[in-house]
Structures are given as structure tokens and as C-alpha cells.
Amino acid sequence: MPRQASGPTTVDFRNPVDREHARLIGRAWIELRRGASTTALRTYLFGCDAPLEQGQMDALDLLARRDDRTMKALAARLRVDPSTATRAVQRLVEDGLAERFPSPEDGRVVLIRITEEGRRQHSDVAERRSHAMMRILSEFDADERAQLTDLLDRFVTSLDTVVGELADE
Q1: Distance between CA atoms of residues 64 and 113, nearest Å
Q2: Are residues 92 and 39 in the same domain?
Q3: Same domain (yes/no): 103, 133
Q4: How far apart are CA 114 and CA 99, in angstroms?
Q5: 22-53: per-residue pLDDT in tens?
Q6: pTM of the predicted model as reported, rounded to 2 decimal places
Q7: Are 60 and 109 in the same domain?
């Protein structure tokens, strides 16, 4: 059973083990963000002719789950500034993958929804993403996958907490 977080613990960079763990985790984070394998994986997932960008796919993921989102709600779910969401949606609209339309309740509010072409492309990428994830995770046994799930969830929660605290400083 995954261990529940018991609260913050002390990390001491004077301790060579803590320092080395932080270094290795930092290096893994960099490789996840921009490593050569990440570029190859993005090409596999999003294509190379007219590739989607990660932000566009993130928006399509949300739009595929629920249509008729406001730009403000979409930006909040994406955890980005509204201007960033607007740029991603603009490209989706230009590429015919999403459309804007006025809210039936309030014509001043603009809603966004995925188009049939957007659903098709989203489905293609989602299928490739599932295939890649299945192959990546096959390197771990069931207990390791459960542990990885727990640790990554706690890592993201901790990251969100610290980023919020840093923003308040």
C-alpha cells in the first residue's frame, strides 16, 4: 500500500545523500522537460507534418472531456495565464480543431469547443500516448507502478504548494 505523506521533512544539502538525491531528481526533471528522448517522443505523439504543440494537446484533452468551456475556465484548468490559453486556442481555431461561439446564456461570453477534426486528431494522439505509456510502464512491476504513482502525485502536490508559497513571498 502506498505510504501517505506525513508532512514536510528536513532536506539537508550538507548531507551528501540528500544533495545527491536532489541532484539526480533535478537532472531527471531536466531530461523529462527537454531531453533528446522527449523531442523524439513529442514527434511520435504529435506528428511532424503539422505537429500539435503540448499546450494545444493539453487544451484538446480538456475540450474532449467537456465542451463549452470559457477561456477563463480553460486557462484555470491548464494552470496557465489566460493570454497563454488564448494563443493555444487561437492556433486550434486556425487549424480547425476547435471553435469559438457565444454563450447561449450571455452573448458577451465566448465559449470554446472541440470540432470533429479536433476529436479525430485528439483520438490519434491519445492512442499513441497510451501505447507509449504502456511500453514505458512495462519496465516496472505492479508494485513499482503503484509506488511511482504515489510518489509522482505527492511530488506534483508538493511542487504546487511550494510554487504557491514562493509566489506569496
Answers
A1: 8
A2: no
A3: yes
A4: 6
A5: 999 999 888 887 776 777 888 888 876 667 78
A6: 0.76
A7: yes
Distance CA 43, CA 22 (A): 30
Domain count, the chain: 2
103 shares its domain with 130: yes
Its domain, for residue 74, covers 52-146
Q: Count Cβ atoms below 10 Å from residue 41 Cβ, excluding itself.
A: 15
How does DSSP classify residue 35?
Answer: -
Cell of 112: 470554446
Inter-CA distances, 119 with 3, 76, 87, 163, 164, Å:
38, 22, 19, 33, 34
DSSP letter (8 states) at residue 108: T
Residues in Cβ contact with 38 at an 8 Å cutoff, skipping those fewer than 6 apart: 31, 32
Q: Does 27 reside within a domain? A: yes
